[in-house]
Structure formats: C-alpha cells, structure tokens
Specification:
Elements (H helix, E strand, L loop, with lengths): L7 E10 L4 E9 L2 E9 L2 E7 L5 E9 L4 E5 L2 E3 L6 H13 L1 E13 L8 E12 L10 E7 H9 L6 H14 L6
Helix pairs in contact: 2-3
Length: 183
Amino acid sequence: MAIPKKVELLEEHVLFRGKRLLLAKRVYELDGAKFVAEVVKFGQAAAIVPIKDDGKVIMIRQFRSSLNKWILEVPAGKVDPGESPEEAARRELIEEVGYKAGELEKLASIYMSPGYSDEILHIFLAKNLIHVGRNPDPDELIEMVDVKLEDAINMVLSEDAADSKTLSALFLANERLKGACSV
C-alpha cells in the first residue's frame, strides 16, 4: 500500500460560528496545487444504547429541526470542553432519559460524515441502569420509547431514512450482546 502524499493546510477562515458548530474555509496544497474545502467543525459527541434489566432499549423520539420532523434515536449529545466522551455519555443519559449507568462500555468511535465534518461519535453501551430522573435541555423536544433491541433496529430501518448514529449504535450493541442476553 502506497503512503499517502502530504497535504498541507495553508490557512483556515471562519465563515460562520453558531451555538453548536463552526463552518470553516480551508486552503490546502498538494504537489504545488492549491484547493479549497469547507469544513463543519463539530468536535466530539457521545451516543448511548441504554439496556434495561428486562432487555429493552430506552430510545428517544426527538424533533430535529434540520429535518423538520421527529425521528427515533438513541440518546446522544456533544462532548463539552474539558469533558471526556465517557463523562458526556453519562451526563446525556441522565439528561435525556433519566438513568444513571451502573456499567458503561465503549463500543466504538466513528466519523459521522468525514466528507464535510470533523465530528467523531463515541458509542457506548449502558447497563445496570438506575432511574434518577430526567434533566433535559430546554430546547430539546424528546419523548422516551422502551422497545426490544431487535424491534428498535426494525423501527429505525422502517423510517424514510435511518439515523446513522442510531443504526450504528444499535448494530454494535446487538453484536456485543449476542449470547449475553436474549433479545
């Protein structure tokens, strides 16, 4: 396998800075030729597949303004500055569904859409859940849904377009739990 050529970042300019993301214009050079890329700088996020003692997954149905509709998802959120992905997963689990994880296992880290974004999503499996009460962000519209893991996968796949983080998280959790519980 050939070693990739060195691509040099020459400059970066902020085009837009919002509450959750930044849009940057980057100028690169490769073999003397310059090219421009627009990049969404989002950072890191954590997604959690919370499994209750009865084997059901706690999902959320959340209104997503980017899609102008409600979609079925696993709990997830941005990693705050100074926070580890595990800390973010624990915080988001309480905020969105009201459970504390007795056991939290990292399943994978994935790029969400490397064609235009730097977002890295850390996916966790949460077990031995303890109900502590929800603490949702005021701007999040969320309804909770408890469903068997296999049903959750089928429900997400039956939507017009599946949420990639949710589908990845559910498939990873299903693979991890095979033989460990009856789902």
